[in-house]
């Protein structure tokens, strides 16, 4: 060996110290500490506020008892209106979910099984309502169903098809919850082993019988998960509901309005009830999902054969697609049509001052400035939230994916779904409650508090896809890396991370989009600043529709771009 | 009880050929093996028979009745898949009873039949188990029971033993044939394995690139392969290239001035290839000289020999080239490396084909 | 130089799944050993125990007389070749090969020489800068081997390494792999489901069943002198004759099978005891019953089927006790047997094995 080679050069020195650091980090004790920190952060950001709320409800029961049940003037009126709003929320969520299943399941089947031109486009269309901020969506739907600009033009009516109220809430909720059912089973249907269906056919079963007895039982869990998501999303939605509800108040809207009225104890109690209900739903689904059988076992060969006929299937498919366009896609994007109608002036009077150009760019209060400021605020928040969440969610996802103890794994796996199911306004309220003046008193409502609230409810959106990514990486790579002498962290950096790239990007986009579109939690945690979905609600309440349409269109475009990016990333992953 | 006929069956997947112009008749109660490598059109043929695919052209007849347009669920065909395709969320028994249930048959009768099938196939006691709780061999037995229970009288099997361990495969080959014969089913069984085809079937159809290249009993196909491709597909062979010489009612292949007696109608002077299957290249110890009767006996040297279970795989030098030989174990022949032996062949052992340049380029199988 | 010793190693998964049970054997330095057995026999578990990806529930593993109980997978200096290769798709062939020395903090010049040597040894130097997705299965295999050699592992663990290759390429790779292992002076343990591969490639073969080691020996040990019923059954093909020993004095014992008496190898089973005679199907000779010039050590039977298989012929014969046995004969055997023809099944006593009758019966001894 040449003498000069004995002195390691810079690269070797650097590498060795990196390896040594990684080896230190891979020590069991250090790893355990890391795990503890990961769980700690999760508790602090997600579980903490909820637990604190629970705790406060118990210790200040006297207070609550007085305001909620025994108000000196109103008696238990507060409690009764809570019950009314919750009841209404449930009714709406139930109707919406039924629609989602009836139309969403055939839609998923069409997207997973048929090959046709424009399939990708339809697929993107189905996902779009999920990415668009609900306040923009709600506004668009209001314009379509609720004003004389929309569908009523088809039959020359001077008023909208539906006025603000329950029907309009349902129509709005249908639009943004629709993708959840379709999305959650589309992938599973596409991955189903077609050979099983072939086996079924050779045994004499008609396609309908096969779908019922073989395929559906296998998408059962996915369907249930999607149903719960759609249900809880409807139950907890604020932004769109604020716009379309009128005098009818769903529970999350009540939270927001009481919060505005600073009725803290009553708000706390309502938030508490909503959280408990959502948690019970989540728990029930996780515990019983596998055990619940589908209700039908009996086979009616002749009848089911008829249902399998080309005529019936074609009718069903056509209906699903038509209903999707009529109730979901067209209303959701109608705002763009509206924007063009009102571009340079009112389509009815032609008045220039009523048009979008004047309102947004020329009027003395130039709405464009407000819009731009709100947009920047939204982008800043979404960006910070995304970065922080990637940092805290990646170790959590890794931990859950690699966990051997099945019980603990199941528990953690369930816990991280919590932000997914509880109404974001309730979650936002508990964060306000913990971090604000009623709790730790570290923050007052404002930018920082919004960020924390957003981190909290986007947490699941970040962890979920990452767990999937980690699960899809074969353990043989880890084992190979270890066999060659790599410590756990070295193996993570050199082997796991390169596999994870697209998963990370997908998680980032999901988190970013979700943060961009939130209304309820933001309203509760904000100070003077406005995010763009909130600004939209303000515009709506001030009846400056063309400006609202302008802002909505910007949001739709951003969501659309995000969605396309997400599709590109995930598609590339599939090819690899 | 079914007689199956395929008439001019052609199937294209877009531009890609699945099978072309298949004509095949399987008599009632006959067991036919479809033998070919990956991509030969075996699975396509099985799917066409079962109605899981419809042909681009041609007709399929069951007992003379055209079923070309009858959907799979109405054909009453029992199908056994390579990967079993048991329904994962049903017990073994529910899998087997799936057919009777969806056909609306009398379940108490079917349960009885299922019980008999379970016991016939040695899987009694596994009725309540789910597919992921039983071994590969047991899964395929359940799949077989499932295919037969709902009164199927035509059994279609697509490389049913491929995914199984060699030992189980060997056991199931015998069970399969016995079962099919006991129940007098008509059976079509695709496989990539020559020994399997020969073991189970009454007749073999050799497929290549979507067409039938040879059809006959195992003995006919083995003794008279129609092409170099078939001869090579049937087992390990060694190629000898030379020129034909016809002399006094005898035929010879001249390789490097050495005369090898063969059987052929080719004319003198024709360039030819003779393939000698390894198992027909017999080896005797030198001391047997004069005691054995073969058409060609020459001295050869063993250059390698290894025992792979039932055979010794031997490489020896004869006719100035390496010849591959397989010797069943249990014979008293010295097979040590470097030893001189007698290499003996009969004229009928050689499969002789005219030499063609492009045959030479044929993809190795 | 490593010698591997397993001492009473047991691995229980969950509460009761005994994947490996009381496993003890020694693999000597530089030996090439294959593990074979039916699916689920514990061969892969054994390999993973050696690698350290799982730890034994009981017992110990020693490399060169040092217990590896507390050695993690990265400190065992083993080379692991996976059935699906596990080569890193985002690294080139060269970078894959360099992975071991890099993460062990070797110097650049050392890495270069180790990698060059490895790429040469497996003959893939010409594709060193390509990425795995653009290569074919045999090249993936070579890359995986290069990675192991560059890591200076002395113990090579191979899990169905040729399972993903075509039959023809497999046979070439068997020779290549053995030569490589011998040239690099490695101790190799190779799990395979292909008996012929195991018998060709290795110095010794371990037969496993239900988590236990059944027999460890050379190819010819396993074929010609199996020491138990399962090996006779699993390696190649044998038939088993249930019998009772009636004379244990000579070098060939006399046993009674049904109504007949035959001579078999005396393997120490005493008179009056039940025994199982294992006969390889290649070692039976079948003759027409009228033939008189044959040795008289035979069992009478009738032919069930004389099946021509090209490669050989299989004659199935039903013995007097209704048992069906099978005889493998040369495809060109001059005599053809008709169904129900009476025949003699001649047995060469020196080729037989005679085992004690298993307590739970022959079938249970063969259970896989």
Task: Give a verbal description of the structure.
The complex is a heterotrimer of chains A (576), B (365) and C (368). By secondary structure, chain A is mainly α. Chain A is built from 25 helices and no strands. Chain A folds into two domains: 21-59 and 347-576, MetI-like (MetI-like fold), CATH 1.10.3720; 71-341, MetI-like fold (Orthogonal Bundle), CATH 1.10.3720.10. Chain A has helices at residues 10-25, 28-59, 61-69, 77-113, 119-131, 134-146, 166-191, 194-202, 207-236, 239-244, 251-260, 264-288, 301-307, 310-341, 356-362, 367-402, 406-415, 418-421, 424-435, 447-472, 475-483, 488-517, 520-525, 532-541, 545-575. Chain A starts with 9 loop residues before the first helix and ends with a helix. The mean pLDDT of chain A is 87. With 365 residues, chain B is α+β, with helices and mostly antiparallel strands. Chain B folds into two domains: 4-230, P-loop containing nucleotide triphosphate hydrolases (Rossmann fold), CATH 3.40.50; 237-358, no CATH class. In chain B, 25% of the residues lie in helices and 36% in strands. The radius of gyration of chain B is 24 Å and the shape is elongated. In chain C, the strands form four sheets. A six-stranded mixed β-sheet of chain C has the order 6-7-8-3-9-10, sandwiched between helices. The mean pLDDT of chain C is 92. In chain C, helix 2 (93-103) crosses helix 3 (108-121). Chain C folds into two domains: 4-224, Rossmann fold, CATH 3.40.50; 238-358, Nucleic acid-binding proteins (OB fold (Dihydrolipoamide Acetyltransferase, E2P)), CATH 2.40.50.140. Chain C has helices spanning 43-51, 93-103, 108-121, 137-150, 167-183, 195-201, 219-224, 229-234, 362-366, and strands at 4-13, 17-27, 32-36, 58-63, 66-67, 78-81, 155-159, 187-191, 204-209, 212-217, 238-247, 252-257, 260-265, 274-280, 284-288, 298-308, 313-319, 324-329, 342-347, 353-356. Chain A binds chain B through residues 193, 195-196, 198-206, 209, 213-214, 217-218, 299, 301-302, and chain B through 47, 50-52, 71-79, 81, 83, 85-89, 98-99, 101-104, 146-147, 150, 156.
């Amino acid at each position: 060996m040449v003498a000069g080679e004995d002195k390691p050069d810079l690269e070797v020195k650097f590498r060795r110290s990196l390896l040594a650091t990684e080896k230190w980090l891979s020590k069991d004790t250090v790893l355990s500490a890391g795990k503890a920190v990961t769980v700690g952060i999760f508790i602090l950001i997600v579980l903490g506020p909820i637990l604190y709320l629970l705790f406060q409800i118990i210790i200040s029961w006297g207070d609550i008892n007085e305001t909620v049940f025994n108000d000196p003037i109103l008696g238990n009126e507060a409690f009764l209106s809570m019950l009314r709003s919750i009841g209404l929320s449930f009714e709406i969520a139930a109707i919406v979910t039924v629609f989602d299943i009836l139309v969403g399941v055939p839609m998923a089947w069409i997207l997973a099984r048929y090959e046709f031109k424009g399939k990708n486009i339809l697929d993107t269309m189905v996902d779009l309502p999920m990415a668009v901020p609900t306040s923009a969506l709600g506004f668009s739907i209001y314009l379509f169903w609720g004003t004389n600009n929309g569908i009523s033009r088809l039959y020359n009516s001077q008023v909208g098809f539906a006025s603000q109220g329950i029907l309009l809430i349902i129509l709005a909720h249908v639009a943004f919850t629709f993708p959840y059912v379709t999305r959650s089973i589309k992938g599973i249907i596409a991955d189903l082993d077609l050979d099983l269906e072939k086996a079924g056919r050779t045994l004499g079963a008609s396609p309908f019988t096969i779908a019922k007895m073989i395929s559906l039982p296998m998408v059962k869990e996915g369907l249930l998960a999607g149903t719960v998501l759609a249900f809880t999303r409807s139950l907890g939605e604020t932004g769109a509901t604020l716009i379309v509800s009128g005098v009818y108040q769903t529970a999350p809207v009540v939270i927001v309005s009481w919060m505005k009225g600073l009725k803290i104890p009553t708000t706390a109690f309502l938030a508490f009830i909503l959280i408990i209900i959502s948690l019970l739903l989540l728990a029930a689904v996780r515990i019983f999902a596998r055990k619940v059988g589908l209700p039908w076992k009996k086979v009616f060969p002749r009848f089911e054969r008829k249902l399998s006929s080309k005529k019936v299937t074609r009718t069903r498919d056509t209906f699903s697609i038509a209903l999707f366009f009529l109730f979901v896609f067209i209303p959701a994007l109608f705002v763009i049509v509206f924007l063009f109608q009102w571009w340079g002036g009112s389509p009815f009077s032609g008045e220039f001052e009523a048009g979008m150009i004047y309102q947004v760019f020329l009027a003395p209060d130039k709405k464009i400035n407000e819009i731009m400021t709100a947009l920047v605020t939204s982008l800043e928040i979404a960006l910070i939230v995304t970065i922080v969440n990637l940092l805290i969610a990646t170790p959590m996802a890794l931990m859950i994916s690699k966990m051997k103890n099945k019980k603990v794994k199941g528990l953690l796996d369930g816990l991280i779904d919590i932000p997914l199911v509880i109404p974001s306004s309730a979650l936002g309220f508990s964060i306000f409650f913990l971090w604000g003046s009623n709790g730790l008193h570290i923050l007052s409502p404002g930018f920082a508090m919004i960020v924390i609230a957003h981190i909290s409810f986007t947490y699941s959106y970040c962890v979920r896809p990452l767990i999937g990514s980690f699960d899809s990486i074969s353990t043989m790579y880890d084992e190979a890396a270890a066999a060659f002498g790599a410590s756990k962290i070295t193996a993570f950096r050199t082997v796991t991370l390169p596999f994870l790239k697209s998963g990370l990007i997908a998680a980032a986009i999901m988190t970013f989009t979700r943060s961009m579109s939130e209304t309820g939690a933001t309203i509760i945690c904000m100070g003077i600043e406005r995010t763009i979905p909130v600004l939209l609600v303000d515009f709506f309440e001030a009846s400056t529709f063309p400006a609202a349409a302008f802002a909505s269109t910007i949001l739709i475009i951003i969501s659309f771009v995000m969605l396309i990016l997400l599709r590109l990333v995930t598609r590339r992953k599939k090819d690899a | 009880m079914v007689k199956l006929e395929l008439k001019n069956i052609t199937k294209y997947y877009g531009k890609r050929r699945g099978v072309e112009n298949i004509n095949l008749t399987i008599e009632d109660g006959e067991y036919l093996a479809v033998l070919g490598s990956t991509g030969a059109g075996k699975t396509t043929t099985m799917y066409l028979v079962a109605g899981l695919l419809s042909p681009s052209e041609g007709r399929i007849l069951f007992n003379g009745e055209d079923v070309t347009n009858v959907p799979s669920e109405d054909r009453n065909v029992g199908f056994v898949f390579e990967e079993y395709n048991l329904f994962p969320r049903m017990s073994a028994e529910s899998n087997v009873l799936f057919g009777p249930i969806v056909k609306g048959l009398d379940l108490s009768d079917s349960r009885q039949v299922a019980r008999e099938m379970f016991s016939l196939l040695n899987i009694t006691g596994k009725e309540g188990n789910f597919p992921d709780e039983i071994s590969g061999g047991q899964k395929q037995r359940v799949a077989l029971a499932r295919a037969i229970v709902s009164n199927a009288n035509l059994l279609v099997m697509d490389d049913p033993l491929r995914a199984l361990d060699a030992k189980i495969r060997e056991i199931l080959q015998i069970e399969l044939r016995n079962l099919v014969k006991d129940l007098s089913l008509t059976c079509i069984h695709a496989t990539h394995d020559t020994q399997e085809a020969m073991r189970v079937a009454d007749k073999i159809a050799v497929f290549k690139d979507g067409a039938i290249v040879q059809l006959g009993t195992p003995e006919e196909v083995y003794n008279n392969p129609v092409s170099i491709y078939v001869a090579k597909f049937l087992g390990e062979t060694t190629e000898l290239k030379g020129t034909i010489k016809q002399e006094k009612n005898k035929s010879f292949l001249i390789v490097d001035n050495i005369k090898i007696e063969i059987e052929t109608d080719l004319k003198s002077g024709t360039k030819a290839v003779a393939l000698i299957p390894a198992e027909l290249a017999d080896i005797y110890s030198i001391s047997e000289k004069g005691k054995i009767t073969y058409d060609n006996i020459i001295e050869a040297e063993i250059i390698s020999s290894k025992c792979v279970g039932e055979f010794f795989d031997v490489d020896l030098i004869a006719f100035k080239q390496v010849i591959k030989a397989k010797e069943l174990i249990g014979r008293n022949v010295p097979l040590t490396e470097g030893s001189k032996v007698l290499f003996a062949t009969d004229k009928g052992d050689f499969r002789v084909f005219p030499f063609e340049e492009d045959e030479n380029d044929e993809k190795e199988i | 130089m490593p010698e591997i010793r397993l001492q009473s190693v047991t691995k229980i998964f969950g509460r009761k799944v005994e994947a490996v049970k009381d496993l003890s054997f020694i693999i000597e330095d530089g030996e090439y050993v294959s593990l074979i057995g039916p699916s689920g026999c514990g061969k892969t578990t054994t390999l993973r125990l050696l690698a350290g990806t799982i730890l034994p529930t009981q017992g110990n593993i020693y490399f060169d007389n040092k217990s590896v109980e507390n050695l993690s997978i990265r400190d065992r200096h083993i080379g692991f070749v996976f059935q699906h290769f596990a080569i890193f798709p985002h690294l080139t062939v060269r970078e894959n090969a360099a992975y071991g020395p890099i993460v062990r903090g070797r110097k650049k010049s050392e890495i270069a020489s180790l990698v060059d040597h490895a790429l040469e040894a497996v003959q893939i130097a010409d594709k060193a800068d390509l990425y795995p997705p653009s290569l074919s299965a045999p090249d993936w295999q070579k890359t995986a081997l290069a990675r192991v050699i560059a890591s200076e592992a002395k113990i090579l663990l191979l899990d169905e390494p040729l399972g993903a290759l075509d039959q023809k390429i497999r046979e070439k790779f068997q020779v290549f792999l053995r030569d490589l292992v011998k040239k690099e002076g490695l101790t190799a343990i190779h799990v395979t489901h292909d008996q012929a591969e195991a018998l060709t490639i290795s110095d010794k073969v371990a037969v496993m069943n239900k988590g236990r080691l059944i027999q460890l020996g050379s190819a010819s040990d396993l074929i010609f002198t199996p020491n138990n019923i399962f090996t006779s059954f699993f390696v190649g093909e044998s038939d088993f004759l249930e019998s009772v020993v009636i004379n244990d004095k000579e070098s060939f014992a006399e046993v009674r099978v049904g109504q007949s008496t035959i001579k078999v190898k005396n393997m120490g089973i005493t008179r009056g005891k039940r025994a199982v005679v294992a006969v390889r199907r290649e070692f039976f000779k079948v003759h027409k019953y009228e033939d008189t010039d044959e040795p008289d050590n035979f069992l009478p039977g009738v032919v069930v089927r004389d099946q021509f298989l090209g490669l050989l012929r299989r004659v199935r014969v039903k013995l007097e006790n209704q048992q069906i046995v099978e005889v493998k004969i040369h495809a060109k055997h001059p005599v053809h047997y008709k169904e129900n023809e009476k025949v003699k099944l001649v047995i060469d006593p020196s080729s037989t094995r005679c085992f004690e009758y298993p307590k739970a019966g022959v079938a249970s001894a063969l259970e896989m």
